[in-house]
Amino acid sequence: MTIETRIAALIGLPVSSLSRRHGGDLSTVYRVTLTDGETVVVKESDRAETEAAMLRAVRGSGAPAPEVLAVERDLLVMENMPAAGRPGSAWTDLAQVLERLHACHGESYGWPEDYAFGGVEIANASHRDWPTFWAERRLLCHVPYLSAALTRRIEALSRTLPERLPADPIPSLLHGDLWGGNILVSGDVISALIDPACYHGHREVDLAMLTLFDHPPARFFEMLDLEPGWKERQALYRLWSWLVHLRLFGDGYRSAVEGCLVELGV
């Protein structure tokens, strides 16, 4: 069965045209025009149903995200959202969007289902102690795939997390993969957060991911009224993202991992 036939069966309308969107490293995404003239976005993913639940959670918080129009095991059909810029034109609105997202709280840290970035599993089993969650689910899980030297440093760092992280920050709903490419902007407004990897955790994690490739101005962080010590924790939260990049894309990201470790004094 062709992708066009599958989409038509899900939506209930034939496909007029289909083109592949550029920029997706870990999945295939299409822009699809239906015979009634409506345009939708279709994503092939073996975790389509989990992503659909995450998009609904983001929308349920009051933050903008594409509406899920249809989903089956490996195919997700979404609303096509306007996008004509980068976060730099909408920092004020992004701060307000994140306030709404992070105001949606869970009972513990984690998510009902595990997730993945490509072949890198994201373990989300719940835990009530945040340093333990971060150590076990976000750092030590990478050890089997690292060199002996990096392993020693990650293990040493993990033992110090109770002194570096708050034990029980509010378990906020996180986007989980909040880099600039997953933030759609229209003018000076955030039109949608896409490609979530949601779980409940410390809200500072989303900010750390946002600074991987973008440079929010000081006023952006001031609007969020962050807890004391947040700057010192950013390297610890960025470390997980760089470890994922190292495993997915290779040694070009080793220096970023090592830079975080040096910054953390390990």
Keywords:
266 residues; alpha+beta; Phosphorylase Kinase, domain 1; Aminoglycoside 3'-phosphotransferase, Chain: A, domain 2; five-stranded antiparallel beta sheet; two-stranded antiparallel ribbon; 11 strands; 39% helix; Fructo-/Ketosamine-3-kinase; Kinase-like_dom_sf; kinase; transferase
Decide which structural class fits the backbone.
Answer: alpha+beta
CATH architecture of the largest domain: Alpha-Beta Complex
Strand content: 15-25%
Tell me about the biggest sheet?
A: 5 strands, antiparallel
- Any idea of the CATH class of the largest domain? Alpha Beta
Give the SSE string: HEEEHEEHEEHHHEEEEHHHH
How do the strands of the widest beta sheet line up side by side? Answer: 1-2-3-5-4
Number of helices: 10
Say which CATH homologous superfamily of the largest domain is assigned: Aminoglycoside phosphotransferase (APH), C-terminal lobe
Low-confidence stretches: none
Give the strand tally: 11
Percent helix, as a range, is: 25-40%
Enter the CATH topology name of the largest domain. Aminoglycoside 3'-phosphotransferase, Chain: A, domain 2
Give an overview of the whole structure.
Helices cover 39% and strands 19% of the residues. By secondary structure, it is an alpha+beta fold. It folds into two domains: 3-79, Phosphorylase Kinase, domain 1; 87-263, Aminoglycoside 3'-phosphotransferase, Chain: A, domain 2 (Alpha-Beta Complex). The strands form four sheets. A five-stranded antiparallel β-sheet has the order 1-2-3-5-4. Strands 6-7 form a two-stranded antiparallel ribbon. Helix 4 packs antiparallel against helix 5. The radius of gyration is 19 Å and the shape is globular. The N and C termini lie far apart (53 Å). The mean pLDDT is 95. Keywords: Kinase, Transferase. Belongs to the fructosamine kinase family.
